[in-house]
Design goal:
Helix content is 34%, strand content 21%. Helix 1 (14-28) links the parallel strand 1 and strand 2. Strands 2-1-3-4-5 form a 5-stranded parallel sheet, with helices on both faces. The chain has helices spanning 14-28, 69-76, 97-108, 126-138; strands spanning 3-8, 32-37, 51-55, 84-91, 118-121.
């Protein structure tokens, strides 16, 4: 059975709602999922999981959250090569540039991405929840 971490940062609860849907997709399809915040996860845990779903909303000028999430993620980057990962996050403005940049960064690090990233404007609607569940299933 695949063991998958769903690691997220959420300021308003929108990305947390997406994380819960990713976890639901994992569990509904027979995977073992663990959800935790970026403060609870660190690079030493990367090898404990078969796959990792990282979730972070767009901040400021379409960047990752900089005080907690980005430092944690940057510490994990050296372990992305060959690792199955998924990306998700919410936004309130812009066009998803932060996510496209983040996905490109992950691909350059050698990450295996079996599903397109998932972004939702504000809280995830029914389609957004469905895409998050699909992301979770793809990580199994």
């Amino acid at each position: 059975m695949s063991k998958i971490a769903v690691v997220y940062w959420s300021g308003t609860g929108n990305t947390e709602a997406m994380a819960k849907a990713v976890l639901d997709g994992i569990k509904e399809n027979g995977g073992e999922g663990v959800m935790m915040t970026s403060a609870e996860f660190n690079s030493s845990m990367m090898d404990d999981f078969d796959a990792i779903a990282f979730g972070c909303p767009s901040m400021g000028a379409e960047t990752l959250e900089g005080s907690e999430f980005e430092p944690m993620f940057n510490a994990c980057e050296s372990k992305l090569n060959g690792k199955k990962i998924g990306l998700f996050g919410s936004y309130g403005w812009g066009d998803g540039e932060w996510m496209r940049n983040w996905a490109e960064q992950c691909k350059n690090d050698g990450a295996v991405m079996p599903h397109d990233f998932v972004i939702c404007c504000q809280a995830p609607d029914a389609d957004g929840v469905g895409m998050c569940k699909s992301l979770g299933k793809a990580l199994i």
